[in-house]
Amino acid sequence: MGEGMIIGIIDSGIWPDHPSFSGKGMPKPPAKWKGHCDFKTKFCNNKLIGAKSFLRAGAEEQKHIPPFDTGSHGTHTASTAAGAFVKNISVFGNAMGLASGMAPRAHIAVYRVCRNEISCEQPDILRAIEEAVRDGCDVLSISLGGYSTPFYDDPISIGGFTASHKGVFVSTAAGNEGPLPFTLSNDAPWLLTVAASTINRRFVSTVKLGNGLQLDGESVYQPDINIWMPKMFPLVYLGKARDIKSGQCLKLDRKQVNGKIVICDRGGSDRIQKGLQVSDAGGVGMILVNYKEDGYDTIQDKYEVLPASNINYFDGEKLKKYIRSTNNPVATLIFKGVVMDNIRSPSIANFSSRGPSKQNSFILKPDITGPGVNILAGVPPVKAKEKTYYFDLMSGTSMACPHLSGIAALIKKAHPTWSPAAIKSAIMTTAYWQSLDRKPMTNGNHLQANAYDMGAGHVDPSKALNPGLVYDIHIKEYVPYLCGLGYSDDKIRVITHPLPPVKCAKTKAIPQEQLNYPSMVVPLSTGNAVIYRTVTNVGHKKDSYKAKINVPRGFSATVIPETLNFTRVYEKKTFKIVFKWVGGNKVNSFGDLNWISKRHVVRSPIVLHLAAETLA
């Protein structure tokens, strides 16, 4: 469960007096730990072993700002990665049970770099990463980002390289700018770039219309159904065709909404603020309709100010059609509590940022997908009408990232000599790409997801502990790759400064696609390509793997050799794949390579890239 591992959380700070960070039963920090706790009071313990802030305030920034989490982001991510076991938790009386992080016995060290959830300065981020490495962290969890920038201008890429050089694994969030392509950040190959998926738990709040139609939505706040059923309430929507803001419930006239259920479109203000607007104007309930870009995705939120339901865009269109069809529209809300029935899960959240990478388009990004929608984890105290809660739901790739951070800590505990690249490979090559219905994973529009949406697929923690083979990368192997990007020696030095100075003129550069990565983007603009890879046996000392490669019609692929026979642990084998385009439409396509033994399936996603204009 992560004993002896230290996970560094680079975020908005932490609420230290939270049950998820209790030191009860935790061993002392390992001898390698060199950090300390900045809190004036003794909040730190054997679970929360370090807390530092890199923020300053005042006219000359002389006043030190403590590492307290003034929002909830850092507390949520820290408890997701390594929160201790906490009994009888709930969110507004729902989802009662036992909570823990992915690595509940790991230690936590916190580095505050954000004044709030959106104000995080680049110099602070870089200083925090370097400090966490010096302190002795094993894994860094960085749920921060923005836009893709050249690696020599990106503090997470620069700091992440230093961390990888020291054997520290770095997990990062892909970003929340989806579903359009080229929107992800944190895309350096030495970082794990994490996309977000849905989970199969829902807090169902069904909208029942006067015509009998029922539309399933979600809301964490589940009031007593006896107050509502079977009574119908007048239904009102104030949106106008040529005025987007009119339907967003930014301003409401009490005469128009008093005693009614109000339909509100997303946008203009946050969800809770909309609920307050409706309640203050006398509305008895709210139906929040998602953006078109969100597709079928819905976000559970604590609309404790009034009964509510968040429905998807397509059901919102049905709702508005009903409004237009009658002079006396009515509706009620049916609260069904927690339902575990979403067989389409996991699916890729529409907000999750997509590849290709703007910086290295022939390195597949994102790398992996983890749970990131409606994630239950610890937060600073939330005061509700009747009691105080210490757990809440949040969504984003920020929530997916710490899942992978915790999993990486578990793998490193099991395999302490593995490099960050080997751990990444184990995570990627054991991922699955099907939902609970055993069909290919979809996105928020119920369309099949591809590798630019989900990377290698959804993480499978158990299988990642025993991958069979890994695609390892020594830190020095990134130098010829960076030379191949066309960076100058000075710019590469900014990134690789722990290593000796680089001279690309004396270095044999390699194209991006030849980096020994666990996934492949194959350039086929000339009609054919050869990709080389090397795998390392980390399974049984004697094992044999046979290649099975899947490519769509219009392509051919030959693996040479097609069988790999190993006689010892850590033995390496190199193979090549000869790809050809043999006809058909010139569009990017997707396939995979599977090395199959009696015990393992080692899968690598493949992008067959034909259309040059589609990549930056």
UniProtKB/TrEMBL annotation:
- On the tree of life, the source organism's domain of life is Eukaryota
Question: Which keywords belong to this entry?
Answer: Glycoprotein, Hydrolase, Protease, Secreted, Serine protease, Signal
Question: Which regions span the lipid bilayer?
Answer: none
Q: Could you give one GO CC term from the UniProt record?
A: extracellular region
Q: Which Pfam families match?
A: fn3_6, PA, Peptidase_S8
Q: Where is the Subtilisin-like protease fibronectin type-III domain?
A: 514-607
**Domain PA intervals:** 234-319
Domain named Peptidase S8/S53: residues:
2-442
Keyword presence, Protease: yes
According to its UniProt entry, one GO biological process term is: proteolysis
List the InterPro entries hit by this protein, alphabetically.
PA_dom_sf, PA_domain, Peptidase_S8/S53_dom, Peptidase_S8/S53_dom_sf, Peptidase_S8_Asp-AS, Peptidase_S8_subtilisin-rel, Peptidases_S8_3, SBT
Q: PROSITE patterns per the record?
A: SUBTILASE, SUBTILASE_ASP
The record's section on PANTHER family has: PROPROTEIN CONVERTASE SUBTILISIN/KEXIN
Protein name in the entry: Subtilisin-like serine protease
